[in-house]
Amino acid sequence: MRLGVLGGTFDPIHYAHLFIGEEARVRLGLHQILFVPNHIPPHKCEPNLTPGEHRFAMVEAAIAGNASFKASRVELDRPGPSYTVDTLRILHQEYPAAELYFISGLDAVVEMADWKEPLEVARLAVIVAVTRPGYASEASLEGLPRELRSRIEVLPSPLIEISSTMLRERVREGLPIRYLTPDPVVEYIDRHGLYRAG
Q1: Which of 6, 48, 123, 184 is the most interior residue, by most CB within 10 Å?
Q2: What confidence score (pLDDT) does residue 40 get?
């Protein structure tokens, strides 16, 4: 089985996340995509990160209609920072027969040499670097060691100008987020009063 692993804060999840998961699944012939909400992202300072239970519930709500998508608690149930290498080790134990594909933005992958145990990450999974028009190009991978570059697959993706930050700001300002994220996520945010000012 070829298993895609798509991590993120998902605060909240939106259509760009879902599109990247589907694009990777189809283009790379993956059987399933695991959406993995971060517990504590090591590369981001997120002092106001929404509690993991809310973020996980929104992911579950967003992917409910797609049998090829699954939400994973692998990082939420583990204390401390969410390092990719630790997540992949656990997933290797949970899915011993699976070939793992770790899906990330090219902007993060070009910094891979600075990740915790990058060679082990590359041993545990194929790294899928998602490119977007107008952002870092595939040529920026040339600075990585050959043993890392040989495990990277580049996945071109159209530019979808939706971000979680934008959705949070729109909710705070009382603006609609419908059609930027699935309706069950909109309803969850409304029901729980997430992202509102004050």
Answers
A1: 6
A2: 80
